[in-house]
Design goal:
It is built from five helices and 16 strands. By secondary structure, the chain is α+β, with helices and mostly antiparallel strands. It has one domain: Aminohydrolase, N-terminal nucleophile (Ntn) domain (Glutamine Phosphoribosylpyrophosphate, subunit 1, domain 1). It has a seven-stranded antiparallel sheet with strand order 3-2-4-1-12-9-14, covered by helices on one side. Helix 3 runs antiparallel to helix 4. The longest helix has 16 residues. The relative contact order is 0.18.
Length: 261
């Protein structure tokens, strides 16, 4: 399956450490070799980098690793193709405009017999993931013609995720640059780093960083991933069938999808 990477922070923060670890899982011999992408929010702007080759072989990924972009919200993805061929059009994250904002989405999983109704937003590629993203935005646009606070969207998002899970595995990250929404169908972990900061070592590369030297006492940075990226730190597993909403590094709402105990 694919793997996800997300970040929510209260100050512009670079994610090069985590990104480096993720790219090690996108090598030519690894299952996640069918493309990768990462999106960095910068105010209302969005820097999107993608490639349809393995991250370990990608010159674009090498550029990103040399370019310490700082952002408060990041969404990343490495792909193991199961629906749709290996191409740039099928590479996550996907981006669309709604209410004058860039919305960004990445998905881990597979949805069988999934054919949502056509609407204003339509997929460019062939993936079930992009179909789900377009359906999410079509649902939001139908109910809310103008921008609303993120918490007001939770009934729409959680209902859609509940329905999507009936077709298979649906782990996702979604953002409009103001907040980061997550859904855990089967697997998603998180770690929140705040003072007192300490060192961390990547699982997949010989790289250690001392976050104490890279941060200030007021920084709060949450990283979300499909699998833990570091050793010697406590990563917390999201319950299956759960969702969460993040803003400025903190979780502002959590819950269970409909029909879950």
């Amino acid at each position: 399956m694919c793997e996800l990477l997300g970040m929510s922070a209260n100050v512009p923060t670079d994610i090069l450490f985590s990104f480096t670890g993720l790219m090690q899982r996108s090598g030519p011999q690894a299952p996640h070799r069918d493309g990768w992408g990462v999106a960095f929010y910068e105010g209302k702007g969005l820097r999107l980098f993608q490639d349809s080759v393995a991250g370990a072989d990608s010159e674009v990924a090498a550029l990103v690793r040399r370019y310490p972009i700082k952002s408060e919200i990041v969404i990343g993805h490495i792909r193991h193709a199961n629906v749709g061929g290996v191409s740039l059009a099928n590479t996550h994250p996907f981006v669309r405009e709604l209410w004058g904002r860039n919305w960004c989405f990445a998905h881990n999983g597979q949805l069988a017999d999934f054919h949502p109704p056509r609407g204003f937003y339509q997929p460019v590629g062939e993936t079930d993931s992009e179909r789900a993203f377009c359906d999410l935005l079509n649902r939001i646009r139908t109910v809310h013609a103008e921008e609303v606070e993120g918490t007001r969207l939770l009934p729409i998002l959680t209902q859609a995720c509940t329905e999507f899970r009936q077709h298979g595995v649906f782990n996702c990250l979604l953002s409009n640059g103001e907040w980061l929404f997550t859904c855990c169908s089967t697997k998603l972990v998180e770690i929140t780093r705040k003072a007192p900061f300490g060192p961390a070592r990547l699982r997949d590369a010989d790289l250690t960083v001392d976050f104490h030297a890279e941060t200030t006492p007021r920084d709060v940075v949450t990283v979300l991933a499909t699998e833990p990226l570091t050793e010697g730190e406590q990563w917390d597993q999201h319950p299956s069938g759960s969702w969460s909403l993040w803003r400025l590094g903190e979780c502002v709402a959590r819950g269970r999808l409909g029909g879950e105990a």
